[in-house]
Amino acid sequence: MTDSPSYQAFLGGSFDPFHLGHRHALQALRRARPRDRVLLVPAGLNPLKGEGPRAESSLRLEMVRRGVADLEWCGVTSVEIDRSGPSYTVETLEHLLNQGVLAPRPGMIAGDDLLQDLPRWRAFPRLLELVGFLVLQREYDAGAVRRFCRDWPSARVTAIPAPPLEVSSTEIRRRLADPVLRDSAADLLPPEVYECIIQHDAYH
């Protein structure tokens, strides 16, 4: 799964594809918490989304691995991709904690726009017990973080300054599907990921 004994933080997502916005988030965290090692967890089937990822799981995993290959403090696990059925973060966390892959009470990296959706997640009260939230604060005010802390006072929340870098996976896929725009998608992707997509002729 991974050769690291312990990670202090994790970042989950479809990574469909892994793009510069993801790199930006990781680098913002690194500036704020330079001792943390981060585990990336490409999602299997997201139960809260009607449609699954466009790219095959194996390709998404490869893109993430290539996209962070130069970041020695990052690792990647296929635990959700290897599991059949929907992926629930709380179950993944309990597995990784039991295996010693994640340090106790790891930080879950999340954008401030995700906070309003977290209470809908499976076993959310248990999630609050297991993790702290490392919130990438892209807004100029801390409104989303304040509201979340007010509604869930037991949550452990750390705001991470993250200047906006708006990169849309949907826009990247749109460009990749258009022969005229395909090359322009390279502007939004790590070079290694763009090369991987071209090699696999993906997202047509």
Which features does this protein show?
204 residues; alpha/beta; Rossmann fold; NAD; ATP-binding
Structural commentary:
Its EC number is 2.7.7.18. Catalyzes the reversible adenylation of nicotinate mononucleotide (NaMN) to nicotinic acid adenine dinucleotide (NaAD). Residues 11-175 form the Cytidyltransferase-like domain. Helices cover 36% and strands 18% of the residues. By secondary structure, the protein is an alpha/beta fold. The protein has one domain: 3-Layer(aba) Sandwich (Rossmann fold). The protein has a 6-stranded parallel beta sheet with strand order 3-2-1-4-5-6.
Helix content: 25-40%
Q: Which architecture does the CATH hierarchy give at level 2?
A: 3-Layer(aba) Sandwich
Strand order of the largest sheet: 3-2-1-4-5-6
The beta-strand count equals 6
CA distance, first residue to last residue: 30 Å
How many structural domains can be distinguished in the coordinates? 1
Strand content: 15-25%
Evaluate the radius of gyration. 17 Å
Major sheet description: 6 strands, parallel
CATH structural class? Alpha Beta
What CATH calls the topology is Rossmann fold
